[in-house]
Amino acid sequence: MSKASKPAPIGKFKKRVFSGVQPSGGLTLGNYLGAIKRFVQMQDDDFETIYCVVDLHAITVWQNPKILRQNSRELAASFIASGLDPTKSILFNQSAVPAHAQLGWVFNCVARMGWMQRMTQFKDKAGKNAQNASLGLFGYPALMAADILAYHATHVPVGDDQKQHLELTRDIAIKFNHDYEVDFFPITEPVIGGPAARVMSLRDGTKKMSKSDPSDLSRINMTDNSDLIANKIKKAKTDQHGLPSEPKGLEGRAEAQNLVSIYAALGNESIENVLKEIGGKQFSEFKPMLVERAIEVLSPISREMARLMQDIPQLDKLLDDGALKANLISEPILQKTFDIIGVR
Ligand code: TYM
Q1: What is the CATH number of the domain that holds 87?
Q2: Of these four, 163, 200, 249, 344, which has the most CB atoms within 10 Å of its CB?
Q3: Is 207 a domain residue?
């Protein structure tokens, strides 16, 4: 943390949302409920909304080029199929807008080694083989800060696992403003919350639902058909108790907490309300309700995704148009940053 005394208040900045998702394949229900569904909700609030397929983040781990290109389009299709409206939001590929990588370099020179070494996601992803991880994987949170700050974004909706990266983004903005004696970058607000801030594995309620879990039964993928969804929920781990009528009764019951949270998030309800309805039921009665709700929400999305993927030129054009708009916002911010630091 820098010793800046006066962070730039968000007040002077336009209310602007930025968020991104990696096109590393296998979008899960966690990505949808923790992030994409909330992106869609925020475009109807009083915000300018900018959403990004962060392909440069994906290559911090080697990707097959053909599959990466396919995954980027599929992710863009899933955004739109989930309700993201390209006339309301800007949607684009990160690599199509040069300011991300350029500002990312500047932030590599602002962020401190000690800050990066504390990032738990790097430790998790690099595992025991950290010496063999790419430098990009280590520096990744500085690029993420650049994604956000290249737009002077004030609000960033993400799942709970990105919290530490957003704290780092704030530290980078504070240090930059302090070191150059400016009030230039906003101190971004993370927008994390709701019942699905952390969707857990269906096989182990203490582990995050993740595309990298070796067991496909641990997650619901956005491309799963109805039979698969039903089967995975049927096999989801539970405990031997019935469902409580109040949230307190979920304490210490990770799997029950997770399934009830998913049900609540899918139906835009609070956990309290859901428990009023299902309290006293056994899992054998609750699981079919969850299956029905999951299929009702997810089937139209996967159908629409498949339809959008039929017209790749249209999808590419939409992303290119988005990149032009994104560039118009980020380029002047990059130029001003260069001006502040004394280059160009
Ligand atoms: P990524 O691609 O891993 O995940 C995309 C979004 O999905 C959320 N998420 C979850 N939410 C709830 N429960 C889960 N089990 C779950 N799994 C994933 C993530 O929190 C995230 O919001 N570094 C980011 C991408 C990024 C970014 C940015 C985000 C790059 N630049 C700038 C915001 C702003 C990432 O790897 O997310």
Answers
A1: 3.40.50.620
A2: 200
A3: no
